[in-house]
Amino acid sequence: MKPAAPHQAEVEKRVAAEIQRVDQASQHGVSDWMRDRIRTRVTEDVLRSYAEPLERESPALIRRLERGDWAAATALVDLQARRHDIKVIWRAPSAMPKGAAAYAHPEERSVHVPLIAGVEQLATVHHELGHVLAGPCTRTAPHHQLVEGGFSHCAFCETLAWRHALEDFAPEPFLTAYHAHAARALELNRKRCRMTTDALGLLDAFVDPKILTTVRAVRAAGGRRAYFAAKVEQWRKELKHA
Ligand SMILES: [Zn+2]
Ligand SMILES: [Zn+2]
Question: What separation in Å is there between the alpha carbon of 13 and the centre of ligand 1?
Answer without folding.
Answer: 34
